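Sequence only, no structure available. Ideas?
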Amino acid sequence: MTKENKSKQKIINIATKMFAEKGVDKVSVRDILREINGASGMFYYYFKSKEDLYKATVQQFIDKTISKKRQIIFDDDLSLREKLYFIYKAVIKDYEQFSKNYILKDEFNFNKESYFLPIFYKMLETLSLDLKVMFNKAIDNNEINLDMSVDTFVDFMTYGIWGVLYNNLSILSEDNIKKNEEKVKKIFTLVFSLLNDENHSI
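Reply:
I predicted one. Tokens follow.
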């Protein structure tokens, strides 16, 4: 990583930490610069605004969630049951973190739904392809039985889960978050029931 990229990454990392601790609306560009002992010119060399920096922290969060789930999916030392369990835990943890740290009210003047949707769809496309490889391998290993094609099953699973969790981002409340997590648990419970072993619970 070049010195320039390191400087930009440092700002993103500090902003991510401060947004999580205080909330996006409570952190100013000046606060971030004070934390890293930087000048305003340094900030505006990399980012047009605090909104631009916020978007960079969101993209980094999404990239990390994809990487984390891909590590689980392609871990050959894990059984399908173990992979599904760890994916379920990661999905819930990421959702709670996203809901706490990245959901905004009206601080920035941009359409949150139209901003987030393309990012989520790109994430789902990546994970869907990987999950299809995982389930095809699991079928070959007799770990699961499916009455439909793997493509249909994975699309139902992935788009169903993220549709439940990330629909209507602007009206998420603590009560809605818990209800959404219960719905996702039911989807995973259904998937676990298809495994070729005696334990059908998460």
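The first helix runs from residue 3 to 22.
Hope that gets you unstuck.
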